[in-house]
Amino acid sequence: xxxxxxxAEAIIDTAIELAKEKGASKIKKIIVRIGVLQSIExxxxxxxxxxxxxxxxxxxxxxxxxxxxxxxxxxxxxxxxGIEDLDEMDEVREAIHFIPETVYAYIKCPNCGSPDFxxxxxxxxxxxxxxxxx
Amino acid sequence: xxxPRIFGIRRRLKGIKKxxxxxxxxxxxxxxLISVLLALKSKEIGYKTGLLDLDFTNPSCHxxxxxxxxxxxxxxxxxxxxxxILDLSFMTIVYYTRDEPLALRGSGIDNAxxxxxxxxxxxxxxxLYIDMPPGLSDEFLDITSLLDNVDVLIVTTPSxxxxxxxxxxxxxxxxxxxxxxxxxxxxxxxDIRGDKLSEKYDIEYLGYIPxxxxxxxxxxxxxxxxxxxxxxxxxxxxxxxxxxx
Lengths: 134, 245
Fold this sequence. Notes:
The complex is a heterodimer of chains A (134) and B (245). In chain A, helix 1 (2-22) packs across helix 2. Chain A has 134 residues and is α+β, with helices and mostly antiparallel strands. In chain A, strand 3 (71-74) and strand 4 form a beta hairpin. Helices cover 34% and strands 29% of the residues of chain A. An eight-stranded mixed β-sheet of chain B has the order 5-6-2-7-1-8-9-10, sandwiched between helices. In chain B, strands 3-4 form a two-stranded antiparallel sheet. Chain B has helices spanning 5-13, 31-44, 61-64, 94-97, 106-119, 138-146, 160-173, 194-200, 215-221, 224-244, and strands spanning 18-23, 49-53, 75-76, 80-81, 84-85, 88-91, 127-131, 150-156, 179-187, 205-210. The A-B interface holds A 1-3, 5-7, 9-11, 13-14, 16-18, 33, 75, 94-96, 98-102, 104-106, 115-116, 118-119, 123-128, 130 and B 1-11, 56, 73, 76-80, 93, 96-98, 100-105, 107-109, 111-112, 115-116, 118-119.
């Protein structure tokens, strides 16, 4: 839950700053892309955003979430793989939820065993688009 | 794509009165030891003090604090609350890696820094020391770009390798980063070199710590608070007095 609140604050802060920059009176829509690796609970994030909107008196009409799958790619052999179901790594899921890069401490390329791989997608939380009204 | 963490980080850190990044382009100069000692002394004289180990691939602060951090999971409350270790609010990636080895490329380091800074709540923290890894790479660039309220403390030794290295660091960054001062570690027989470097670039020379040949053995055998009291107190106190004036 902790991460959802921290991310909600960060999203609202971003929205406020960008609205100021654009001279917008209201934000019509925010599209948030969420990587699966971070195991964000969407409903908790939405709840946190609603609370913060009220507390900070920020007008945002609609927040849309998009999910991004996890893909890894080995830097040594080029093998690509995903984590179809994060429950397979349940014991380290919490660590990865807080800081996704800790995944490098727990997994290696299933093909060649190298720790040198890249998280190609599914890693973080980003604002893909903000639509504002002046 | 907009990264919302950038704004979140500023919110998290704006309440801290002083943030010191203990940094050096040169490795092995004693940044970790100095970060820990400054933090402990600040706490001792009454400041609510935080310590952040930003060396993700070789975290060491917890070793000096003698804490088996694998037993600890930080409290969650709308963010991560750094646990109190020796009465310091202490944050390290080791809480989440369980001290397993971690090899990271630059983008991984950049992301991990932004994540950690976004989710950590430094409640009631007046002074924060950041133990930086050596070099002028992602960690140093991120801290000096993401935060607009960080003071850089540069650590050197009298070695020509270190002096030349940090001189380049000063030249590169002095116009856009606030270099609060220079500290000199491992000084033998009062052979100080850093003061001339400080003078050349109009940076405050905060002080020096002498070379202690048996320090490694001492670190194995004694706890860090005793080491501060018995071996370093006079030097750290002098440095801190100048730093906080």
